[in-house]
Amino acid sequence: MEQTLTPGQALWVVERLLAEQRITGKDVRQYLDDLGREITDLERRIAELRQIEGTAAPVRTSAAARKANRKPRAAPRGSQGVAVRPRGIAGTLAVLLGTIPAAEHAAIRAIRADRGIRAAIKAAKAAATK
Q: Please, which residues have CB within 8 angstroms of residue 4's CB and are 6 or more apart in sequence?
C-alpha cells in the first residue's frame, strides 16, 4: 500500500532521514540530479516522437538540459575526509547530534517527534554543554 505524501510531509521525512543519518546530503543531491536527467531524457524522447509523427520541428536541447546531463561532481569533503553535513535546520540538528553521546540521540529524536525540530535543537544544545 503506497501512501501519498504532502510536500510538507515529504520534507519532514527527508529531514528525519538526514538527521538519523539513514541518507546523506550526497544521496539527496544524486536523486535531484537524476530528476534533471530524467526530465531531459523525456524531453528528448518527446522530440523524437514528434519528428517521427512529422508534426513539429526538432526541439533543441537547452543549456539547462545539457547541464542536467553532466556527470554529478563529487560531494565536498570536510578536512577529515568526512562528508559535509546537510545544511538548514535539519543540518543544525545533525551537527549537534554529532557532538553528544550516542546514548542521548534517542531522547533527542523523541523530542523532535513530539515537540518539533526546534525543541530538539534546544535539547541537543543543552546536552552538548553538559
A: none
